[in-house]
Specification:
Helices cover 43% and strands 16% of the residues. The chain is α/β, with parallel strands linked by helices. The strands form two sheets. The protein has a seven-stranded parallel sheet, sandwiched between helices. Strands 10-9-8-11-12-13 form a six-stranded parallel sheet, sandwiched between helices. Helix 3 (41-49) links the parallel strand 2 and strand 3. Helix 2 (19-27) packs across helix 14, helix 5 (93-105) packs parallel to helix 6 and helix 11 packs across helix 13 (339-356). The longest helix is centred in the first third of the chain and has 18 residues, at 66-83. It is globular, with a radius of gyration of 21 Å.
């Protein structure tokens, strides 16, 4: 039996992204502790229900604040020494970097990380992000040197880490199909008769929100009955959209804003096509996997992480990043031939079953960690 510590940057993700993985660890006979900042009582109760205990740990999820990050790391070291885990698993940038450092300094023998996306540090959207990127590259290089295995959610990120010299030993890399999706929970539902499009994302520029809105504006001028919906929250991020812009879009009736939803299933069920025009450095977007599992056609960008989810012309369309014209053309293909919506939606579900079933993904992870 192993004593496993799982560290994430956001408490909600412990259930939504790592819940099935930790449950399978418990079912395999291991003791599991989950750590993240500020878990609600609801999250803690869900963890307890699957046999996982929770420990509060302070991590500032966004921004480069060296003193605060160092304080967090020293707290991690203290906690890890108290808990004495045999195995550490971190995901998202700060848990991977500072968690790997802390695990090494605390004497944890087995250290694993998942690169679930590259984030703002690798976005190259300005001088600030480039400076942060250089620092992150160095920190990743040292931290990942302590890891037995590093899991990547798409081949582009793996290649980038090799090309940049971050990953010195390619044998440490394990490629997985995202975080997987619960294909039983997210099951196919009937497609609405009205053509409606949905985007679920943190409301930041790099997720393609502005391109989605501009495409909606053009489509609604040509096809007034087509509906566009938006789900998400304005994140603490340099590229966050403004509340004023969001309000103006709603007031213009370009898009219906559904807010930040804990349960996105009704929103996906109410849409016929799922759209994510992201040029953010993704791992594998979980929202696309959920939409695929529910039998929805997909429009997304031909960019790392997104391109792996769509076989162009089979379960949706790939469009160039930041290209509103191509996005409009892809939407019009569905409007002009609505039969494609159902056909491609069925193909999405088949791909989700075959490639992205969360149990298949977790099997690869747990075998690599020698926990099954």
């Amino acid at each position: 039996m192993a004593n496993v510590l799982v560290l994430g940057g956001k408490a909600e993700s412990l259930i939504s992204f790592r819940g099935h993985m930790m449950q399978e660890m418990v079912e395999a006979g291991h003791q599991v502790v989950a750590c993240a900042p500020c878990a609600s009582q609801e999250i803690i109760e869900k963890l307890i229900k699957i046999g996982v205990s929770y420990q509060q740990i302070d991590i500032n999820r966004t921004g480069m604040k060296p003193l605060q990050d160092l304080r967090s790391m020293f707290k991690m070291i203290k906690l890890f020494r108290e808990l004495k885990p045999d195995t550490f698993f971190g995901y998202t940038i700060k848990p991977v970097i500072y968690g790997s450092f802390a695990a090494r300094l605390a004497g944890v023998p087995n250290i694993f990380s998942m690169i679930s996306g590259l984030g703002y540090a690798f976005s190259n959207t300005g001088i600030k992000s480039k400076i942060i990127g250089v620092i992150a590259q160095w920190l990743y290089t040292v931290a990942l040197g302590f890891n037995q295995k590093i899991f990547f959610q798409n081949p582009d990120n793996l290649k980038l880490f090799v090309d940049m010299g971050i990953l010195k030993n390619n044998a440490k890399a394990v490629l997985v199909n995202g975080s997987g999706v619960d294909v039983d929970l997210f099951h196919p539902v009937p497609i609405p008769s009205t053509i409606s499009l949905l985007l679920i994302a943190r409301l930041i520029k790099d997720k393609g929100v502005y391109e989605y809105i501009e495409a909606a504006r053009i489509i609604k001028q040509r096809y007034p009955d087509v509906e566009f919906r938006l789900v998400g929250f304005i994140d603490n991020n340099p590229s966050a959209i403004s509340e004023q812009d969001l309000k103006s879009w709603v007031d213009e009736e370009i898009v219906e804003y559904l807010g930040h939803l804990k349960n996105v299933k009704p929103a996906i069920a109410g849409a016929s096509i799922y759209v994510l025009p992201s040029y953010y450095p993704e791992g594998t977007p979980h929202s696309i996997l959920e939409a695929m599992a529910m039998g929805r056609a997909i429009i997304t960008t031909d960019t790392p992480g997104c391109r792996e989810t769509v076989i162009d012309g089979k379960n949706g369309f790939l469009v160039p990043a930041r290209d509103v014209s191509s996005l409009v053309q892809a939407i019009e293909k569905f409007i002009q031939k609505p039969i494609k919506i159902e056909m491609m939606g069925k193909a999405s579900r088949e791909i989700a079953d075959e490639k992205y079933d969360v149990h298949k993904v977790n099997s690869v992870i747990l075998k690599a960690m020698e926990l099954i």
